[in-house]
Amino acid sequence: MVALIRVAVSLALLAVAGAAPAPLADRATPAPPSKDPFYAVPDNVESAAPGTILQHRSPPNAIAAFGALRANLQASHQFLYRTTDNHGNATATVLTVLVPHNADKSKVLSYQVAEDASSIDCAPSYALQLESATGPLLGTLVTQAELLLMEAALEQGWVVIVPDFLGPQGAYLANALAGHAVLDGIRAALNSADITGIRNPTVAMWGYSGGSVATNWAAELHPTYAPELKIAGAAVGGTVPNITNVVTTINKGPFAGFIPTGVLGLSAQYPELKTIIDQHLKPQYVEKFHKPLKQCLVADAAEFLFADVVGMFDDRSLIYTNPTAVRVLRENALGKATPKIPFFWYKSVLDEVSPIGDTDALVSKYCAAGVSVEYVRDIVSEHGSYAVIGAPKALSWLKDIMEGQAPRKGCSKKTTLSTLLDPATFEILPKFLIDALLDLLGKPVGPILFG
């Protein structure tokens, strides 16, 4: 994450130095989702089929990098659509549709951001807008930075759809909800033909870290929840298969803030977990522990930097031994079902959020069940830097399947010193960085067509 922020800030500073600010008339802060009636779940939502579009609008403000630098898109849309929560109940969330100039509307990429927050006000549909409020300490900076990866896809001419997969309550780590929201977001996009022009597209998915969890869950739920959807494949990086092991790994470290954020996110879908937290959280930590309900990822990371979050409870073994906590975490771990789509998978061997062994085990399980996986393990990167370093090769794989090239059958596993040494990375990374900078400077986002 630190490396991603560093790259994002560097590009932003370069662009700000040469870009004119948005006109003052366009710079009003949009209402956050918690105060915007567009996000409200309709009372009769259960009467609609999953993926039904309930409301449509253009985003209140233009899509913008870092909340300041307007993206020059052909069009953007927001849809409130029906989806399903962790317990099978009808709910609704928002999808953002980004349409580049010279769009090829026969190709759609569902991009899942690493929102990693337990407040609805951190949702990408809001964070990607001009003048969106970031909360304390630039809390939505990582989501805003991921627009650069989305723009890499938009430069291919693909329509990019971005679901608010944490739902209307910021239910971080409620992963069946996340998977449903991704699949229903694709359904909503397919239902939007009269508005967006999307018809009979090739569909793929991409996500890193928290975004990969939603992507993987969508892939696992796809055969039973949305079998009619034709999904060509998925690129996933920095995957987090086992939540319990992550708690052990990140406590007292730079990513310790994921623990309270995840607990609070799960509590939105599991009131019984909230009861346990309320019973066992030491009084002196109650206010601090609940701060993620009012702030976003970067602020959460700063708030709990190197904190002993497990020690904030009166029982350090609570998460490992309490029957309710154990059940909730197991229910939201990956590996419950077998996907039917091919994968490109990339992971840092030194990933300091989720141990590499957990991903190795999940990939092996998928492969044993007949899933095709191209798995790349990178030695010298870490969780944050590999979001950037691994992106060009993921994009190259996605380009192949979008163009109808059949992915490699079966499974392959490659451990490399650095993905930066891969020819595909050398081919794509310079253009990726140049396009990102030019897009920040106002270049029309999308492929340049001649003739």
UniProtKB/TrEMBL annotation:
Signal peptide feature range: 1-19
An MF annotation (GO) of this entry: triacylglycerol lipase activity
Keywords: Hydrolase, Signal
InterPro entries linked: AB_hydrolase_fold, Lipase_secreted
Membrane-spanning parts: none
Keyword Amino-acid biosynthesis found: no
The keyword Hydrolase is annotated on this UniProt entry: yes
Gene3D superfamilies from the UniProt entry: 1.10.260.130, alpha/beta hydrolase (3.40.50.1820)
Name used for this protein in its record: Secretory lipase
Organismal lineage: Eukaryota, Fungi, Dikarya, Ascomycota, Pezizomycotina
